[in-house]
């Protein structure tokens, strides 16, 4: 969740949606994203809407305290129930992200989930995920989450090498994420993800292979691997600018991606989105698939984004402002936009092309179709699904996914 919010039109004080937003809602899945904006320390590469205790001191008072945050999120869930009215859909996925959700007591996360269950109900087999910092959980904490209804957990591993973690300002010790996977399995979690980052300054190919091997050896059924993006304004960007650490180039990122595909596929993982691999269809992250396929979700928390029926909105960024809005009986929404049919077409191409089954060719305009034909000839699109009317990236196409998307949209 980026820290900079877009501009947009004003959200009504009661958060009401235009009537068309719920037309055909019964045909779309509904998910919830719950943002926990608190972190013990700020990682040097992070540009998310998160806050440490020192950053909040004097800016939010009691309103921005972690102690009552679960109550604030529950209040926004009740607001969602009012806004969505008699929408009969049970919630298909819940994802608690951050920040570091596990800085809150396990009981707080369970209470936030309970508010969704009380107001909307959970669909049979609903996926309920939380992100977790490896150093902020223990077996008792994980057991309480599992007993409270969480069935999927995502640990931030990033790397198995200490010197790489140090550059990223990650505070966990190597080996702890792998131990967390075993603890989560013992607690009864059905699905476990490890997040990895490649391309950190000072990381070698051998370092990256060691991280992949360690992640696989821990026994998760899902791995996410992302290229490091150096965001302006972060501590890492300042260190690179001062020449303290080198910048990793695109060729290195490409090499690391090829290593990732080689190692993970060799261990029984299959890619289903450019940066995500799972050992089975059941292991895929259903919540992220809601995003990628343009379904409906409500994002609760400071800076959280939502989308329902072509209406997208986002909350105020600061935890104090968020709490104050809810305490006054107002929506915390800071702005919104109504997506046109063209907006939605373009977004479908942007998101669906990154998926294993790609996007329909009939989404493309003539210029995009011409670009698709060139991408096919260049080996960037798979000829078999292309013949069946779908644009699906090859491995080489995945390396150049952003460029291919731009060409097909244009």
UniProtKB/TrEMBL annotation:
SUPFAM superfamilies given in the database record: Radical SAM enzymes
Region (Disordered): 1-22
Record-annotated Radical SAM core domain positions: 24-270
InterPro entries xrefs: Coproporphyrinogen-III_oxidase, Elp3/MiaA/NifB-like_rSAM, HemW-like, rSAM, rSAM_horseshoe, rSAM_sf
Localization of this protein: Cytoplasm
Stored Pfam families: Radical_SAM
Location, primary (coarse class): cytoplasm
Superkingdom of the organism of origin: Bacteria
Assigned keywords, A-Z: 4Fe-4S, Chaperone, Cytoplasm, Heme, Iron, Iron-sulfur, Metal-binding, S-adenosyl-L-methionine
Stated family: Belongs to the anaerobic coproporphyrinogen-III oxidase family. HemW subfamily.
Function of the protein: Probably acts as a heme chaperone, transferring heme to an unknown acceptor. Binds one molecule of heme per monomer, possibly covalently. Binds 1 [4Fe-4S] cluster. The cluster is coordinated with 3 cysteines and an exchangeable S-adenosyl-L-methionine.
Entry protein name: Heme chaperone HemW
Biological source species: Streptomyces bikiniensis
């Amino acid at each position: 969740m980026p820290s900079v919010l877009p501009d947009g039109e004003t959200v009504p004080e009661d958060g009401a949606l235009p009537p068309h937003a719920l037309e055909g809602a019964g045909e779309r899945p509904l998910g919830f994203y719950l943002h926990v904006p608190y972190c013990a320390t700020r990682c040097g590469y992070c540009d998310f809407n998160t806050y440490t205790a020192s950053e909040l001191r004097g800016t939010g008072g009691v309103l921005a305290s972690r102690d009552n945050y679960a109550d604030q999120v529950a209040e926004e869930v009740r607001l969602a129930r009012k806004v969505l009215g008699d929408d009969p859909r049970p919630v298909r996925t819940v994802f608690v992200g951050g920040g570091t959700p596990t800085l809150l007591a396990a009981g707080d996360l369970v209470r936030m989930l309970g508010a969704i269950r009380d107001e909307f109900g959970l669909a049979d087999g609903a996926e309920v995920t939380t992100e977790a910092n490896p150093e902020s959980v223990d077996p008792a904490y994980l057991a309480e989450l599992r007993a409270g209804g969480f069935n999927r957990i995502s640990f931030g591993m990033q790397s198995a090498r200490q010197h790489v973690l140090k550059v990223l300002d990650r505070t966990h010790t190597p080996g702890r994420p792998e131990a967390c996977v075993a603890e989560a399995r013992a607690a009864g979690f059905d699905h476990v993800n490890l997040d990895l980052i490649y391309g950190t300054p000072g990381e070698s190919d051998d370092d990256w292979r060691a991280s992949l091997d360690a992640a696989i050896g821990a026994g998760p059924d899902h791995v996410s691997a992302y290229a490091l993006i150096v965001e302006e304004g972060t501590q890492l960007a300042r260190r690179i600018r001062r020449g303290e650490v080198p910048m990793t180039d695109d060729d290195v990122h490409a090499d690391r991606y090829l290593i990732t595909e080689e190692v993970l596929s060799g261990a029984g993982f299959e890619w289903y989105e450019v940066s995500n691999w799972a050992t089975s269809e059941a292991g895929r992250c259903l919540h992220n698939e809601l995003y990628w396929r343009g379904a409906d979700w409500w994002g609760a928390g400071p800076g959280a984004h939502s989308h329902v029926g072509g209406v997208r909105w986002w909350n105020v960024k600061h935890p104090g402002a968020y709490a104050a809005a809810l305490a006054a009986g107002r929506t915390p929404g800071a702005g919104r936009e109504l997506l046109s049919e063209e907006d939605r077409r373009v977004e479908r191409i942007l998101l669906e092309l990154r998926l294993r089954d790609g996007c329909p060719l009939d989404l493309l305009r003539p210029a995009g179709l011409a670009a698709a034909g060139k991408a096919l000839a260049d080996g960037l699109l798979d000829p078999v699904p292309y013949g069946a009317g779908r644009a699906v990236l090859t491995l080489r196409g995945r390396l150049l996914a952003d460029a291919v998307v731009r060409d097909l949209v244009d």
